[in-house]
Design a protein that fits this description.
Order of helices and strands: EEHEEHEHEHEEHEEEEHEEE
Shape: globular
Largest sheet: 5 strands, mixed
CATH class: Alpha Beta
Mean pLDDT: 90
Low-confidence stretches: 287-292
Strand content: 25-35%
Oligomer: single chain
Radius of gyration: 20 Å
Structural class: mainly beta
């Protein structure tokens, strides 16, 4: 299938060849896209690693991995996609900033871990809660990494509390990927997985969970990953006029041919994938048969 296409070395950003996306329903960990905003953190002692759950909660708590392992484990097949996927195609119409992704900043994996709704119950937040008694309406995830865009500060993002406390939303604190412990590239030892939402909200290398009244005010929620009409440019942009992007639209990509391919007359098999949050978290894979 070939090696990954490396877009940026520092921080490391790379995507697999198109063919890797349709070679199997589950994307192998080694062929899952890499999206980073800073150096990949090193967690040397998993026994000392912990996540603090605090903010507008009744019982703030520090959780070690042994505490999370004791919670019921769930396996969720979910697709993650970088919000900037297919930026190269966008740039053919109008130049856009950001990593020049082709079509493969997306992957479908089996994630294993504890449901966030179970974790939040440990600090006194019942399931199916939209606001805590202290006014918390959003769940903010903070990483241990250091981002150049945040001037060395951590990556952070948030989702609504109503989504975080809904067991059917399948939001995980994941410690496994495709049946194996997470590797460093994909968030070891613990990451958030938010199905049906752009990958920017599935924070890796999790360090803190804060229950807050408003959406996360970090750069990646307020001044990035937002959708604007074509009339908006970098000179007239007003970030406050748009909400942070969460969902992604229906998309379909042919993966068995490159952008410029010559085919002989006759029957041609085209393998593709399609995805949308309405597909219950997962990619759909298929084949088309065309005659020329």
């Amino acid at each position: 299938m070939g090696a990954k296409l490396e877009h940026v070395n520092e921080p490391f950003n790379a995507e697999p060849p198109r063919a890797a996306l349709v070679a199997s329903y589950v994307t192998p960990s080694d062929f899952f896209y890499n999206r980073n905003h800073g150096p990949i953190p090193i967690v040397e002692d998993i026994n000392r690693y912990s996540v603090t759950v605090s903010g507008l909660v009744e019982r703030p708590k520090q959780l070690f991995m042994k505490d999370i392992w004791m919670l019921p484990k769930y396996s969720v097949t979910a697709t993650l996609q970088c919000a900037g996927n297919r930026r190269t195609a966008m740039s053919k119409i109008k130049t856009v900033k950001g990593v020049g992704w082709d079509v493969s900043a997306i992957g479908n994996a089996i994630w294993g871990g504890a449901k966030l709704s179970d974790v939040l119950e440990l600090v006194g937040i019942p399931k199916l809660t939209s606001v805590t008694r202290f006014g918390g309406r959003h769940v903010e995830f903070i990483s241990v990494d250091k981002c150049k865009e945040e001037n060395g500060g951590p990556y952070k993002a948030s989702i609504p509390l109503s989504q975080a406390t809904n067991p059917e939303a399948d939001v995980l604190l994941a410690y496994e990927m495709n049946g194996e412990p997470l590797n460093r590239d994909h968030g070891y030892p613990l990451r958030v997985v938010v199905p049906s939402v752009i990958g920017a909200r599935s924070v890796k290398w999790l360090e803190d969970i804060n229950i807050i009244a408003e959406e996360c005010q970090g750069l990646f929620m307020q001044k990035d990953y937002k959708m604007f009409p074509p009339s908006v440019n970098w000179d007239n942009i007003d970030w406050s006029t748009r909400r942070p992007q969460m969902d992604f639209p229906v998309q379909c990509v042919i993966c068995s041919l490159e952008d410029v391919s010559t085919v002989k007359p006759g029957k041609v098999s085209l393998f593709n994938h399609a995805y949308n949050e309405l597909f219950m978290h997962e990619c759909l894979w298929g084949a088309l048969f065309l005659c020329f």
